[in-house]
Predict the 3D structure of the following.
Amino acid sequence: MAHNRADRAVRVPRHDVGERPFIVIWEVTRACALACRHCRASAVPNRDPRELTTAEAEDLLRQVADFGRPPPLFVFTGGDPFERPDLCHLVRYGTRLGLPVAVSPSVTPTLTESRLRAVRDAGATAVSLSLDGSTAEIHDRFRGVAGVYESTLRAWQAARSLGLKVQVNTTVTGHNVADLADVAALVHTYGAMLWSLFLLVPTGRGRLLPPLTAAEVEDVLHFAYDVGAVIPTKTTEGHHFRRVVIQRRVLEEHGIDHEPFLGLGERYRRLSERWRRLGLAAADQRVRRPPLDVNAGRGFVFISHTGDVQPSGFLPLTAGNVRQRPLVDIYRTAPLFTRLRDPQNLTGRCRSCEFRSVCGGSRARAFALTGDPLAEDPWCTYQPGTFPFPREVASLAGRREPEGPARAPARARRGG
């Protein structure tokens, strides 16, 4: 069956991601008062004197604008961005250059309603907040400071009352995986532009956290798909969610029950049951938000607090520095970036996978666990070629694939 562009299960940026990223994230500082157990940046209390100066930050913003129109989304993150006294000036500067700007603050004493109002007035349109548990006990233990849970809820309400869009980020590890349905219920209650589930990459302090198994990750991704019927949902470093979305769309069109067909596990059943008990499985359905096809170095670029250019904040390989070389040139031509953008360079199951052009696996997780950013994603269970609907997959992915006979449904069950 054919699908037009508007009906694709996965959104594709309208411009060539080899020429222009969809999103640029700048780590303005690593200073932060929290001690989050997963922190990629291993944040510290004080600012680093090597941080980009205000003038250098203005130059970075001009470099981002040099990518042309439409400009990439620009996100100020940290550490805690409010540790920089020039944050509002830089938000205003980027906005005047025509950049769509968002801020990802830490929930510390620096995050007040007046500061949220200030970044809004400077031109920011959205903020992202972290919620890693449905209770203060779970969230505050993860964030390392008592009282952060209540402060997060207050900041969330304040941001929405100011007209800012709010994205809620939840880091998924062994500490909170059983609580995800309750977190989703909070997102439904408080309202958000998007709920993003971050599948842990073991970098920084995150190396010490209890990981999920690949089978549990698969269960979580299918639960995220279910939740997406009620609240807008995405994943971070869970690129195989795009494969899950396509599989579920195909099975729905064929009237096939996904749970036994795909061999989902106990974690999925428990989360689904909790979701039903909370009464949200029967909540008002909404138009699904298709996931966006971007990946490390392929539509995504990260700038460190010292100006290093990396494919992702979770993939700590540096291709250059904006103090010495233009960001546009680094993104378009650096060998690290061009290798990551070519799916032919992937190895293992990711190379042979029919979903590779819209997934590609987490390059950050592959590097963290194997030392090779082009290796297969260790947290994906899918065995290439076992989903028996290649034509539908090609259509929903928005690309052409050689036609061939469908494989036996039994082979669609996930591998170990």
Summary: Residues 352 and 384 are 6 Å apart (CA to CA). Residues 1-6, 400-416 have pLDDT under 50 and may be disordered. The two ends are 31 Å apart (CA to CA). The domain at 5-277 is CATH 3.20.20.70 (TIM Barrel).
